[in-house]
Amino acid sequence: MSKVIISCAVTGSVHTPSMSPHLPVTPDEIASEAIGAAEAGAAVLHLHARDPETGKPSPDPDLFMQFLPRIKQATDAVLNITTGGGQGMAMEERLAAALRAGPELASLNMGSINFGLYPMLQRYKQFQYDWEPQYLEASRDFIFRNTFGDIEYILETLGKGHGTKFEFECYDTGHLYNLAHFLDRKLVTPPLFVQSIFGLLGGTGADTENLMHAKRLADRLFGDDYRWSVMAAGRHQMPFVTMGAINGGNVRVGLEDSLYAGRGRLASSNAEQVRMIRSVLESLSMEIATPAEARDILALKGGDNVAF
């Protein structure tokens, strides 16, 4: 088995500030959390920005530029910038930060889906900000748009235009076929970094057979041309990423995907989750990839070739 790449998704656009006092919001908090995760063993840091006053997900490139250079200076980690953004953002907003930064790696969602966050309304009695319950409720009628045209545009402007490679986020098996379509058209270049996602309402359920089916299908579609990774939402996070690693995959953890570090216990930091999965993997005799090794495994352009 090759070494396992640990990715950490530091803040995301799913959870809201009232859900955890440990969710990073300000550029300072995001930088600090990202650096801590890298020191704990994350080779890849997946990054979103938030409005520092309210904690609402923000596409503002100026906010990204307040933490990207700091993280780069303090770590050797691969910085992976979102192109998914957050609910209600236009494509131009979703792409703005990545186009400014020209990162080594960026997320790219491989199809349009319903993206339901509204069940979380039942878990919280009070919210710190008015936008939070409104944001969750709006997901009841929200389609996370990623059309073939959208994907082509991102591949052309960010991929071809900046030499950025992608974490291809696949929320169901149809997304794997979409990626195979772009591979057939030679619009994407191996090795493909395929992130299988489980447990989000609107995507593939967190069922063990679904994980194994995703791996079998990716093997059939991509053969040796891909590197697999697994992430899962909420309580499914640690069990599913562990199963993914046992079956030859890389792993993603972080407060974007789950706020917890055990049953009923909020994670105190992103680094805590990284340390947890690192301990599990090392106890199974798996070796953890360094950032340099992750760059080699994913064939990235290198940290000296970004615009921050």
The CATH superfamily is known as Aldolase class I
**How much helical structure, as a percent, in the residues?**
25-40%
Q: What percentage of the residues does DSSP assign to strands (E)?
A: 15-25%
The biggest sheet, with number of strands, parallel, antiparallel or mixed sense and barrel status, is: 8 strands, parallel, barrel
Architecture per CATH nomenclature, i.e. the level-2 architecture: Alpha-Beta Barrel
Provide an overview of this structure.
This protein is an alpha/beta fold and 308 residues long. The chain has one domain (6-305): TIM Barrel, CATH 3.20.20.70. The chain is built from ten helices and twelve strands. It has helices spanning 27-40, 61-74, 91-101, 131-138, 148-162, 173-184, 208-222, 237-246, 270-283, 291-298; strands at residues 6-9, 44-47, 49-50, 57-58, 78-81, 105-109, 113-114, 143-144, 165-170, 192-198, 226-232, 250-253. The strands form three sheets. It has an eight-stranded parallel beta barrel, surrounded by eight helices. A two-stranded antiparallel ribbon has the order 3-4. It has a two-stranded antiparallel sheet with strand order 7-8. Strand 9 (165-170), helix 6 (173-184) and strand 10 (192-198) form a beta-alpha-beta unit. Helix 1 runs parallel beside helix 9. The chain starts with 5 loop residues before the first strand and ends in a 10-residue tail after the last helix. The model has no long low-confidence stretch (mean pLDDT 97).
